[in-house]
Amino acid sequence: MKKVTKRLVAKKRQGARSASVKKVARPASIDKVPKRRKAASREPQADDWRILKRERDKALAENARLLDQLNARNRDLAQSLDRQTAMAEVLRIVSSSPGDLMPVFASVLANATQLCGAEFGMLASYDNGRFAGRAVYGVPMEFANALTRTRAPPASALGRLESTRETVQVMDITLDSGFSDVLANFNPILRAMRTLLAVPMLKADVLIGAIVIYRKEVRSFSDKEVALVANFAKQAVIAIENARLLLELRESLDRQTATAEVLGVINSSPGDLAPAFDAMLERAMRLCEAAFGILRTYDGQRFNSAAARGVPPRFAEFLASNPQDPQPGTIGFQILQTKAAVHVVDAMDRESYRSGDIHARALFDLGGARTSLVVPL
Q1: What's the 3-state SS for 134-153?
Q2: What is the dotted CATH code of the domain comprising 269-374?
Q3: Do 190 and 212 form a contact (C-beta atoms < 8 A)?
Q4: Which CATH superfamily hosts domain 82-246?
Q5: pLDDT digit string, tens, across residues 94-146
Q6: The pTM is what?
Q7: Whole-angstrom Cα distance, residue 327 to residue 235?
């Protein structure tokens, strides 16, 4: 029994040794893998340098393009900020000075001129077929007065704007036929101007003014600059309309107040017309900003003075000794015939003055009056 056991143990040991020393076969693919050889070093060739230089130039060009885009974007943002700031300033002035247009005109013109890179500017109103200078920038007011003293010539920038109601741009006014007479007769200020931009101020297609800006160099105004000046023109129109509405409101309130005051005088003095007539005349003169006034009653034959205010002494003496009969050609006669108000813009232009009528002459020579308004009661 012991012998059998020993033999079995010996066989197990022998098998274990043979298993431990058994050789493992290597895959054939491992032997076929080529060995990596070290690359041979060489000096850079001319083609290599050209390739590197070309790539570097491409990178520099791309960087420059991106930088230009960034700078352009920054410029646009800065210009947009300047425009918004200028608009805010104009709106602030409009709100802080209701009814006072001169600060608004000055601010509108200054901002439009500066933001467009121009050196000179003029803002003019338009009424009854004529322009009138209201504000200037970089030039004396005489410049605007000289340009608007007469009607705008049809070939001039303002003349073209007047006829078309559209923006006018003149690249070089020294080469424009519409400025030949102006350049020949005007002061050297205009000779320093080259490129001109004139933008209309419109209210529902009705021309009420214009903004004109000038450059010393020949350089056109861009579409953005034209649009910018047009926006400033709109702000000026809004300011004019606000001032008009405010003036109408104030005038309406003044009329209502004056009427209430006259009614108060009438109620406080029943049967006595003198205080009522004096109150009527005083309120009428105040509302119309008249220098002096006379209230007359008509007795069927002549007009008699019932109240007077501010009449120059020499003219008052003349009226006291020379009562006016309503003869043909006189304002009194016209009032009796038409029962309508008579507005004399210039007393010296009336035929009665030129023909030597003593009352028409005295109104100007002794009273100093040029414009008068006569309203029937």
Answers
A1: EEEECCCHHHHHHHCCCCCC
A2: 3.30.450.40
A3: no
A4: GAF domain (3.30.450.40)
A5: 666 666 788 888 888 998 899 889 999 999 999 888 898 999 999 888 878 87
A6: 0.58
A7: 53
